[in-house]
Design goal:
Length: 118
Amino acid sequence: MVVTLLATLAAWQWDESAARGVAVGGGAGALGFWMIVRSARTLTSIPKEEIPFRVYRWTFARMIVYAFGLFSAYLAAPNGQNALLGAAAGLFIARAVMLVTGLAMWRRREQSGAETNS
């Protein structure tokens, strides 16, 4: 959410409707991330026969959230595309943060493994 706020403030300097789009897309991306975390927690405690159904259900629900975010951004500025592009960028913020965090954790684990082997 901090990165979304910073991106929204940066986009505000460029265009107000784009900033609104980034905020809406970032919120939808954060909600989608929360849904991923929640589904991962529940997938560990259900029978393995139900896993495919649950995965598809959560994926579909997340896609609905993303579509609602994009549609809301479009409605914010239907004459221009800046809000829609901002919302698309906002959706990628959560993915980018997950990627950077994962790479940082992998690098830290690799470094700590090299230190223990020496």
